[in-house]
Design goal:
This protein has helices at 2-36, 42-56, 60-80. The chain folds into two domains: 1-37; 38-81. The chain is built from three helices and no strands. It is mostly helical.
Length: 81
């Protein structure tokens, strides 16, 4: 019986260690991703809002142009940061 108890105890300890390591890895990943978040510029926010307004007005061609501009600006801001 003690052999079973020792095996169960060791398995439980290994599980606890593995879970602690996974938790530490996950926490580090979340912190790293949180630092990556880029705050959008006023111009980018304006372009997105303008694009949505144009789409609501059914001016899809102009909305697509504005969306492309906003996408390029967002990409530039991400690479800059």
């Amino acid at each position: 019986m003690t052999d079973y108890e020792n095996t169960a105890y060791e398995s439980l300890q290994k599980l606890k260690e593995r879970q602690m390591k996974e938790l530490e890895d996950f926490t580090a990943k979340v912190r790293k991703e949180a630092k990556k978040k880029v705050k959008s510029s006023k111009e980018l926010i304006y372009l997105r809002k303008h694009c949505n307004t144009l789409a609501k007005m059914k001016d899809y061609d102009q909305a697509a142009v504005i969306k492309d501009q906003a996408d390029k600006l967002e990409e530039w801001e991400k690479t800059k940061a």
